[in-house]
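Action item from last week, closing it out:
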Amino acid sequence: MTTKDMVKITLNLVVVYVIGGLIMAFVYAKTSPIMFIKAKEEKEAALKLMMPEADKIVSIGSWEPHEKHAEYYAARKCGEKKTLSVTDEKTGAVTEEVECIDPRDIGYIVETFGKGYASYIQLLASVNKDFIVQKISVLHHGETPGLGDEIGKDYFQNQFKGKGIDDLVVIKGETSDKIAAITGATISSRAVTEDGVRNGVIMLKEKLSGEVAQ
């Protein structure tokens, strides 16, 4: 193979890589806004399920568990709801918006992360004003199928309702006042319970009540 042939092959490879990179950049530019909107809609729907009795859920702060951006929210009940007609200045279209009058906090929701066996587990946990857990939800994870992925099952998540900070501890075996570990997936169980939910509730209590949890 001559030097000329080698240069030609190299140039062809460079052109292929450049074109491939441009195509990937174009696809990403087109799809990333759609993915962002979809992720936002899914998160809003998940937040509503965490405390369905709330009239509105608003972000009140952020924190960084495991150096990952996460938010926490106030779940609010309106003292009164007033329907307003709003006209779009550009299109003239009229839509109805609900104004929440005299809202009061009925609880809080925290987004948190726990370091599992095979992934960081993204979670939501809702608490009442006494910081007692009402519900948890696993948003995303990459735990082992058939073992760690049991964290998404109702039988595991239903244990969290009514638990305070001191109760958010994993126990191997049966327990009525703590959280029973998933058989063969203690690391995933602790990631959700102690690293994720418990640390999230501790953060909420310290931020919102000024009380340092022990």
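Closing note: Helices lie at 3-50, 154-157, 186-209.
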